[in-house]
Amino acid sequence: MHERKIPLNLNCGLDLIGEVLYGKWKIRLLWFINEGQLRPSELQRKIPDASRRVLNIQLKELEEHELVTKKIYPVVPPKVEYSLTDFGKTLIPVISALGYWGDENEARLRRVILNRMGEND
Question: DSSP letters of 19-56?
Answer without folding.
Answer: HHH-STTHHHHHHHHHTT--SHHHHHHH-TTS-HHHHH
